[in-house]
């Protein structure tokens, strides 16, 4: 099962959380990943991820298998750090390319952070529907509405954009199948250059399909009397119970441990 970006219905501890509390807890855990340093910091981050996956009854191996498609991205992230970091003691240096032990360490550090962030992102999307994530963002940003910042409109746009992603993906698959049936797009075993050039015939039909979907959505919203710029039609709901307190306390405690470890290392 592809866990990246997919919601997995369940009755786990993580799924039962309030949308806002769950999103706030994950934000704290993302800060933990960004602030972790050294082997001890990596161990703390990985332990937190294991606990989060246990809370959500999620499979770590499924997420790991889903990340195989990003191998080229991970290699690029490593290379950008390993070959372009200034160093006083480089292993190899030519023009602006500097390959050093410091660059290798920074490359592995960045790749690990990205992998941990992907694990957390997969857990968040697997335990939260796109609407739930949008509602959480709306609630967290609600205080900005008092500064006349259009929080509700921004959250609505984000919700619509997220909900349209699988629809556009389905449209692209249908276009690919129809074009392949006409012999326009070669099969997957073709050369990389041929496959790259075959993407060009998909651009215009995909844009037309996206604009058609957007126009239909706008017509539907107008027919239902939606007007932007008015007072929010949704009541901000925040349900804090025993489970929510446990989750937010776990996130704060984990972040505190990570920051404490970082101070000791420094």
Give a structural overview.
This protein is an all-alpha fold and 266 residues long. It has helices at 19-35, 38-55, 60-66, 71-82, 101-127, 130-141, 151-181, 192-197, 200-223, 242-265; strands spanning 92-94, 97-99. Strands 1-2 form a two-stranded antiparallel sheet.
Average pLDDT: 78
Radius of gyration: 23 Å
**What class would the helix/strand composition place it in?**
mainly alpha
Biggest sheet, open or closed, and with what strands and sense?
Answer: 2 strands, antiparallel
What's a quick, concise take on this entry?
The protein has 266 residues and is mostly helical. The chain has helices spanning 19-35, 38-55, 60-66, 71-82, 101-127, 130-141, 151-181, 192-197, 200-223, 242-265; strands at 92-94, 97-99. The protein has a two-stranded antiparallel sheet.
What is the topology?
Blueprint: H1 19-35, H2 38-55, H3 60-66, H4 71-82, E1 92-94, E2 97-99, H5 101-127, H6 130-141, H7 151-181, H8 192-197, H9 200-223, H10 242-265
Antiparallel strand pairs: 1-2
Features of the shown structure:
globular, two-stranded antiparallel ribbon
């Amino acid at each position: 099962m592809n866990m990246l970006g997919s919601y997995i219905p369940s009755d786990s501890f993580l799924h039962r959380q309030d949308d806002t509390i769950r999103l706030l807890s994950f934000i704290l855990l993302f800060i933990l990943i960004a602030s972790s340093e050294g082997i001890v910091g990596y161990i703390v981050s990985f332990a937190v991820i294991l606990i989060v996956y246990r809370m959500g009854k999620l499979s770590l191996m499924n997420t790991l298998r889903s990340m195989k498609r990003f191998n080229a991205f991970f290699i690029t992230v490593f290379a950008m750090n390993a070959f372009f970091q200034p160093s006083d003691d480089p292993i190899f240096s030519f023009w602006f390319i500097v390959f050093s032990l410091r660059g290798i360490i920074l490359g592995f550090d960045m790749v690990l952070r990205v992998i941990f962030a992907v694990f957390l992102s997969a857990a968040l999307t697997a335990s939260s529907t796109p609407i739930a994530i949008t509602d959480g963002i709306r609630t967290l940003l609600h205080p900005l509405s008092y500064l006349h910042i259009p929080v509700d409109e921004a959250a609505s746009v984000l919700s619509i954009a997220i909900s349209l992603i699988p629809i556009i993906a389905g449209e692209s698959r249908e276009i690919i199948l129809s074009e392949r049936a006409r012999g326009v797009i070669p099969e997957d075993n073709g050369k990389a250059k041929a496959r790259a050039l075959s993407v060009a015939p998909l651009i215009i039909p995909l844009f037309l399909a996206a604009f058609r979907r957007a126009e239909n959505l706008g017509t539907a919203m107008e027919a239902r009397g939606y007007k932007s710029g008015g007072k929010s039609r949704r009541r901000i709901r925040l349900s804090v119970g025993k489970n929510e307190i446990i989750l937010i306390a776990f996130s704060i405690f984990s972040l505190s441990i990570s920051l404490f470890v970082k101070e000791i290392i420094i």
